[in-house]
Amino acid sequence: MGNKIQLIDRLRLGLAVSVAKSVTFMVRSLRLGAASVLPGSIARRIEPRLLQLLSKQVKNGVILIGGTNGKTTTSLLLRTILERKGYRVAHNSTGANLENGLITAMLEITNIVGSLDVDYAILEVDENIIPKVLAPIQPRIVLCLNLFRDQLDRYGEVDVISKRWTKVISTLPLETVVIPNADDPTLSLLGQQLPQKVLFFGLNEPENYLEEIPHAVDSIFCPSCGHSLDYKGVYLSHLGDFHCPNCGFQRSQPELNSNDWSQILVGLYNKYNTLAAATAAIELGVDEATIRETISNFQAAFGRAEELEINGKRVRILLSKNPVGTNETIRVVTQSSDKTTLFVLNDRIPDGTDVSWIWDVDTEKLVERGGTLVVSGDRVYDMALRLRYSEKTPESHFKLIVEEDLRQAIATALENTPDNETLHILPTYSAMLEVREVLIGRKIL
């Protein structure tokens, strides 16, 4: 870790860093955005090996976190744990998880000549570019959270991505530590096939099994032989306790007993994030007392179960960008006593332009419960139609409000939220950024 860089590389790196910092200064001074991507994009044109040169300088190694859901929360929790122990950590905290965003995050804390003085770098990485960045980064730990359908217009099905992951991770040095989700069949098999040290995380909580397998299920067939998997129970989507009656493939054994670990964030999906971060932190030598104390005081990342107070009303923002994630945020809402929900559906590049995934979401559970449902966003009428089709009877006791203007939609939702309840906002990614800007007047990206 932390290898020295040759003189010629240092000169090119210094030039790239100087240009990137100048771009960052101009963008922020002119209030054109947060400069979380553009500086890295320009700097990489000057020095194409920038990600490799920066990664080499990280003293104790890079922790790479990949998966469809949970990257930002897991990354922030692990970063908080390490910083509590006094380590200096680089982190792409804005969620810019493509290559230029990774570079920009590391450039942010270099000096003017490109020297990076950090103990760890935690990089949350878009699942589709993991095969591209693993070789230059050479991470110390690869944390594989889950694989669900997400932005099918860009990525395709989960088995395609998992095969790419397996192929490239297996080529990493043997000292690399891989931490996959034991409850995800594709990742469980991935871990069983790797030559590196593998530590699994997962749940041991049968009391939290779903009553039935949800519509948004991605992988109920054996990734080894293709036969249907038998499940003792499912926690969410295809995550659960499984085995294959045909070839004998079965769920891997997690390192930690999930019943021994508490969580502060709402949602069973955040229990997975907690266990993933705890498993990685223990592998890095952090004592359990520090990890538990950090978990008990942890605050959600922006838009991920983030809680705000707006005009005396409580607001909780639950990012909902794909079928599995939205089913879980709906589970959070329906388990509460709150009856006002705002859906904001966009179809921009960060969201994925194909919004047909909303028909795989179990919105029926929310409609059946009743209350007030406000919808907005670029595809407001698609969302409204989905909710109308969720009515099992014409006498459904829910109030649907369609509002094209987001600012007015938020105001309407707040007006319909009683003082003693919480307004739940379920936005897609770009919509979440807009919602936060309306509520607190500040951009993230």
Describe the structure.
The protein is an alpha/beta fold and 445 residues long. It is built from 15 helices and 14 strands. It has helices at residues 7-29, 38-46, 50-55, 71-84, 99-107, 130-137, 158-169, 185-193, 268-283, 288-296, 323-334, 364-369, 380-389, 406-415, 429-440; strands spanning 62-66, 89-91, 120-125, 141-144, 177-180, 197-198, 230-236, 239-243, 304-310, 313-318, 340-344, 371-376, 398-402, 422-427. The protein is globular and about 75 Å long. The model is unreliable at 151-156 (pLDDT under 50).
Topology of this structure?
Elements: H1 7-29, H2 38-46, H3 50-55, E1 62-66, H4 71-84, E2 89-91, H5 99-107, E3 120-125, H6 130-137, E4 141-144, H7 158-169, E5 177-180, H8 185-193, E6 197-198, E7 230-236, E8 239-243, H9 268-283, H10 288-296, E9 304-310, E10 313-318, H11 323-334, E11 340-344, H12 364-369, E12 371-376, H13 380-389, E13 398-402, H14 406-415, E14 422-427, H15 429-440
Parallel strand pairs: 1-3, 1-4, 2-3, 4-5, 5-6, 10-14, 11-12, 11-14, 12-13
Antiparallel strand pairs: 7-8, 9-10
Helix pairs in contact: 1-2, 2-5, 4-9, 4-10, 6-7, 7-8, 9-10
Radius of gyration: 22 Å
Count of helical segments?
Answer: 15
**Strand runs, count:** 14
CATH architecture of the largest domain: 3-Layer(aba) Sandwich
Q: Low-confidence runs (pLDDT<50, min 5 residues)?
A: 151-156
> CATH homologous superfamily name of the largest domain?
Mur-like, catalytic domain
Q: Termini distance?
A: 31 Å
**Which descriptor suits the 3D outline?**
globular
- How many domains, in number, for the residues? 2
Strand content: 15-25%
Structural class: alpha/beta
Estimate the helix proportion, in percent. Answer: 25-40%
Which sequence of strands runs across the widest sheet? Answer: 2-3-1-4-5-6
Strand and helix order: HHHEHEHEHEHEHEEEHHEEHEHEHEHEH
CATH topology of the largest domain: UDP-N-acetylmuramoyl-L-alanine:D-glutamate ligase
Which CATH class of the largest domain?
Alpha Beta
User: Major beta sheet, specifics?
Assistant: 6 strands, parallel
Average pLDDT, rounded to a whole number, is 89
Domain Mur ligase central: 65-279
Pathway: Cell wall biogenesis; peptidoglycan biosynthesis
Keywords: ATP-binding, Cell shape, Cell wall biogenesis/degradation, Ligase, Metal-binding, Nucleotide-binding, Peptidoglycan synthesis, Zinc
Active site: 354
